[in-house]
# Entry
Amino acid sequence: MVRKYSAACWACLSLLASVGFAEARDSASDLSSSPPYAEPTRLPEVTVSAVQEQPPAPAREATSVYGPDLSIMDTPRDVLPVSREELDTVMAQQVNDLVAFSPSVNPTEATGNVVSEPVVRGLPATAFRNGMLVGFSSGGNWGPLLNINADDSLDVVTGPVSIVFGPQEFAGGYVNEVTKQPFFDRFRGDAYYSLGMYDTNLWNIDIGGPVGKDKKLAYRFDYFGQEGYAPYNYYDGSYLDRECAYLALSWKPTEEVQVDWNGEIDRNSFLPYAGVNRPTQALIDSGLYQSGPWIGYYTPPATAAQPFGRFHPGRGTPPPGSGYAVAWGPEVPIGGRANLFDTSLDSSRQLYAVSQAIATIRLNERLTLVNNTLFEYFQANAAQPVPDPTWVVLPYGVDLADRLEIRWEPEQKSSWFSQSVDGGLAFRFLSDEEYSGSWHPTSNQADMSKPITASDASLPVPYSLAISPAYDNPFLTDIPIPGYPGEYYNVDNFASTRCNFQEISPFLQDILHFGEKATLFLGARLDAYFVDARPRPAPPPCSSAPPMTPPRRAPSCRS
# Structure
């Protein structure tokens, strides 16, 4: 069989070779007899031009966390510059997302609130905007949410705040926002729309360019919108909605003068998640929830016959140290997305506006004058009556700050030594009014196996009940907040205050460079504080919140 196939193959190859030789001979004869080719047609020249696409800006090798721009290697702090490209890579939208860049950042969340400042080394970090202190937060909470989309980069620093910026609180570090700057070369623009699971929608428009042919004025505009955010939307009833508009203008009339202005308006509306109450081992192991309605509460005194105190059926508010009564029901399955705040009665809203102007005048080669002015306005209302009656209201907050710097670089008389001096005066004025009410948490009395309604909340305490023998504390009175129906505050809680704060701070910083390997920082700052803080007024003794149910006898009011 092998020989037969070999003979057949040789026959086929011989036939193909003869056919190929015949075709080649015919082609050669055709070429010799055909006329020469005509002159080819010439097309007109086309000139193509293009502008080389600029790559995303890398992380900056210099930082201004000590006032003037310094090399990161010359800065005696752990400075982590986070570029715009890095922020976009992880879709950073809140301060907890900075954990992707620094192990010193601790992601955290306070129940009922969205953290407004990153936590660095276990403590809230002070927030700065182009070197100026911003925010109205208290321990990293209740302040305006950071709009990362308005930033070109962020400097995350561990350790104390610099002399020029000025320390403000006991913090493990600080964050300096470097906001987006206008484009002087040409128009640039970028836009995106992102949608995903759990009704998450994000959109952004970022445009900018020069104004006029002389290109001495330029602008940058950024608009960011958000409906939902996965860590919140995953849980029933939680959400995070935002609208943020940012505008920046830069003017360079001469080479020695530059004026930079930026402004921003943010509207935030959110409701965080609070987890599941009544935790049991069955809930952890099998997802079984301990059901049961709230049937009453207790008040002192406790006796042998009534070890929990006197029982009161129905809704009410027990004094501190007493508790609620729940008729335990069966263990029922509950979903992993269950949320104690799954009710339309709870909400948190913020309105934040900021304006900043930075004027830089170069007087000569050695002397530069810099003035940095910032203004902030903030309104906030966190209303969470169910199931824990909590209200945090800031009708207004105003912050005005200014820092004047004189930067001097003496003539370098030696190749191994140079000096940079930064001195000036900082001023700040802050005025706000705050109301806070929360002293009778009632988380466990709400039955999450059923829809959470207003009947799951404890009742406000009137003055007549607060001074009764069972309560014996007038500061437990729930006082209506003016202009906010259905919301209440308490006095003597170190939170319900009207405050006027002033600060005057002269400072001087001297940086000595010895060659390329050694740098010595010398500095001094004096902070003078003038504070006028007054608690919000308590109501007349006869004023009260809505009556308790069931009705109960209370002492008569006395003026």
